[in-house]
Amino acid sequence: MRLKKAGALMLKMTEIILLLFIWLTGSCVFSFADAAAWRMSRGMDFIKDRSRCDSCGHVLAFWETIPVVGWILCRGKCRCCGRPVSLRHMAAELIGGGAALLCADRMGISLESVWMLTFLGILMTAALVDLDTMEIPEGIHCVILVLTALSFLSRYIGLGNPEILAADSFELSLLSRAAGALCVSVPMLLLTAAVPGAFGGGDIKLSAVCGLFLGWKGILMSMIFAVLSAGAWGGILLAGRKAGRKDHFAFAPFLCAGVFVSVFWGEEIWNWYRTILMI
After folding, report:
1. Does 153 score more than 60 pLDDT?
2. Which residue, 12, 93, 247, 267, shows the most beta carbons closer than 10 Å to its own?
3. Rounded to an integer, what distance in angstroms lies between the CA atom of residue 92 and that of residue 90?
4. Quick check: 226 and 257 in contact, CB under 8 A?
5. What is the DSSP letter of 251?
């Protein structure tokens, strides 16, 4: 009996350690995504340059950059100037940890999870840069294209999840991705041609590469959520007189939030919607 209890305890401890490792991995990915966005927004090299205090420029030590832990140890303040550290950094790390756990839950510990977590991390960078500068760097679109090619090819050379492959042939997947690249980006382009400034060029390109990665169903659901949430935010700004009808705000954060919702809860939402239509 004691051996059985000890075995169950060891199994539980192993599960907890695995979950912590997955969470930490996601936090590290999104911590880098946040740091990359901070550097790119300021015209810095996102790989070679070091993370610094937003206020005094103090170069952060390694232990200060440890996801969440560094923020807690510094008590949310720069140890050099004492000014508060933006909660945005810790929020990105917490979201990354949650995204990693959701990827593992939805797709298992697989290569698909790795591709998806990387994709979401890149989107986080795009959203934060757009929030800071109202622009999305061309390099982000290129990186997503490369990631899409790698993830697509890996599924059909013996590295993919068998359950996913069983429900998704090569031809159908290719067609879905091609449709995804066009079904949202083309209407956005046409709307922008008719109403100049409706969407930025970076937003249109981002929707195209996201559609290529997610397929038509995923990008459609992402866009619906993005438009609804962006419309609600615009309404709040207008009601509070913080923006006028001709003012613009970053759209990428809403598109990226829509992708998050679509990736993790899209199937449930899609099935619920189909049920409503059948009624």
Report:
1. yes
2. 93
3. 5
4. yes
5. -
Scored b (16 or more CB within 10 A) or e, 248-275 reads eebbbbbbbbbbbbbbbebeeeeeeeee
Domain limits, the chain: 1-108, 110-279
Q: Tell me what the mean pLDDT of segment 2-31 comes to.
A: 84
Inter-residue contact 173 to 215 (CB < 8 Å): yes
84: β partners: 77
Is 102 in contact with 35 (CB distance < 8 Å)?
no
**What's the CA gap between 86 and 215, in Å, rounded?**
35
* Choice between 243 and 279, residue whose per-residue pLDDT is larger: 243
Which of 12-25 are b and which e, b meaning 16 or more Cβ less than 10 Å from the residue's Cβ? eeeeeeeeeebbbb
| Backbone φ and ψ of 76, nearest 5° | 70, 15
For residue 231, what is the enclosing H or E element?
Answer: helix 216-239
* Averaged confidence pLDDT in the chain: 85
Query: What was the pLDDT predicted at 257?
Result: 95
Residues 207 and 187 sit within 8 Å (Cβ to Cβ):
no
Round to whole Å and give the CA distance between 192 and 187.
Answer: 8
CA angle (92, 94, 98) in 5-degree steps: 115
DSSP secondary structure letter of residue 242: S
Nearest to 72 by CA among 61, 59, 87: 87
DSSP assignments along 260-279, one per residue: HHHHHHHHHHHHHHHHHHH-
